[in-house]
Amino acid sequence: MRLFRTVSIFLFLTLTACRFMPTATVPIQQIPESPAVPTVSSPTPLPSPMASPRPTVTLAPSPTAAETPSPIPPTRSTAPPRTPSPPPPTVPPSPPTVPSSPPPSPSPAPPSPTPPPPPPTVPRSGPVAVWEGTVTLNAYDWERGLVPTSSEDPIYPHPRLDFGAVGGPAPRTYRAVFIQNEYAQLVVLPGLGGRILRWTDRTTGRQLFYANPVVKPTRWGYRGWWLATGGIEWAFPTEEHGLVEYRPWDYRLLGDGVYLRTTEERTGLVAEVTIRLERGTNRVAISPRISNPTGETRSFQFWANAMLTLSDYNAPSPDLTFILPVGEVIVHSTGDGSLPGPGGRMVWPVHNGRDFRRYGEWRSYLGVFAPQAAGAGFAGAYDLGTDQGVVRAAPATIRGVKLFCLGDLPPDLWTDDGSRYFELWGGLTATFWDNVSLAPGQAVSWTEHWYAVSGLGGYTGASAEGAARVTSLGDGAEVAVMTVRPTVATVVLQRGAEEVARWSAEVGPGRPFRARGGSGGGPWTVEVFGPQGLIVRAGE
Question: In the structure, what pLDDT confidence band is assigned to residue 158 with cuts at 50, 70 and 90?
Fold first, then answer.
């Protein structure tokens, strides 16, 4: 296992309203006495019957199969050009061929100036490839501005940041873990908070995460500063962006992913995150585990914050829509004076005549919680222009769902090129005003799934195995289905309790099924069945 030095820090919350409410209840376990490998379980599994042109990376030609996509392929730009971005990140060459049988979990290589070997080519329905390499990003010299704190400071022992002492941006190389199968590729940076920096849908060639061309400190967060980087970060052990998003995490390669670990000094709590790209699927399994090895009860929060665009340029498009299966949301913070303040409730999706499913209605910065979405088990977003979306599916016990859009905030707060993003959060607690408590020796763990969908024209229902849409046409209905793995599915269209159409469909990642059926009006429902039973059910 490769170890990195850890550095302490704290986050001070701005642009938010924060108050505490009673402790949330979650399933907990006793910490195993001597676990050789941390185990992560899902306490409540889901039913399975689940701007400017985008910065790109340069990649050497593959020495083997020409069909192998670049680890981070360039994306198409349809946005008008803006101010040129700093030089793009770089990654190592593409891989040679993997053996036909899955390789054993590799051991981390010792430090060496020699570039790591390139990853294997992934054949169709082949194994997951995991390898180490490097990524070069432009980064401000924020370490120059770190200011130690004393015990009187509420964020002690984490540092403050003197923004006046921060140095300008320059290329910086980070060790990276690449995880790839035939449907998706992930790039994980253990040295920058263990974040997933890039997520590429290989069926469309599209990068899903926001790719900030520069790692830049902002004035947001619990410490009073936060590194705006993009990707998906682990916000722990406080609300907002947590305290550990910038520091190195310990890590170990797995046969299909990577295991990450850090200890937060203020609480003594241990956070572990296992990231797996499941073989034969486009599904990313994220398994957090929080344990308390101290002698005192500790309170905390844990959130996964995904910064996304879903467009072909590095900003959300006007065609972006949000998918929350709820009737109301709770405002966290906003600059829109026409909306309720922090803690206030809004009808979802249409509030005071404005349809907040549409990105264009988020005119000022706005963050909302949607804890009711936990009951449905999914939330996400979909760009109708690129016909590309993402799904987050989680157990019902994992209550937190949050959306945040930047609205009219000036982009120089977080970047240097005018690019923008939106945030989709998933967390253990319902809101930032709730905490979880762990007694000495206790732990909590779960598994949630994130996956890409495309070619559906949006979705109205999802699970950990797939997503579906049913839309009334006035006379009949249209259905659309995609699953996380290749499947011969039975798609059933119902009007009320009556079955009106049935199809057999070959579906899977990048292979959506769409059809029209029935007559007259609804209400319409579509159910999708596979060899193991119900995959997903969606209503209008």
Answer: confident
Cα separation, 48 vs 361, in Å, equals 35
C-alpha to C-alpha distance for 197 and 231, rounded to whole angstroms: 4
Does position 469 have pLDDT exceeding 60, yes or no?
yes
270-291 mean pLDDT: 97
Q: Which two tokens stand for residue 249?
A: 């995490």
Model's pTM, two decimal places? 0.80
418: nearest Cα among 168, 151, 82, 19: 82
Tallying the residues shown for the chain, one arrives at 540
Instruction: Return the amino acid letter for 104.
Output: P
Mean pLDDT of the chain: 83
Residue 340, number of CB atoms within 10 A of its CB:
15
Q: Is 488 exposed, middle or buried (0-12, 13-18, 19+ CB in 10 A)?
A: exposed
Nearest of 239, 233, 298, 223 to residue 18 by alpha carbon: 239
Q: Give the helix/strand (H/E) hosting 456.
A: none
Q: How far apart are CA 190 and CA 247, in angstroms?
A: 9
The widest CA-to-CA distance across the chain, in whole angstroms, is 71
Q: What is the DSSP letter of 376?
A: H
Instruction: Please identify which residue in the block is written with the tokens 């996304």.
Output: 308
Which uninterrupted H or E stretch holds 133?
Answer: strand 129-141
Tokens 């005003």 map to which residue?
433
Q: Decide if pLDDT at 82 tops 70.
A: no
Strand ranges in 166-311 using DSSP code E only, listed in sequence order = 167-180, 184-189, 195-201, 206-207, 211-218, 226-235, 250-253, 257-263, 270-277, 283-291, 298-300, 303-308
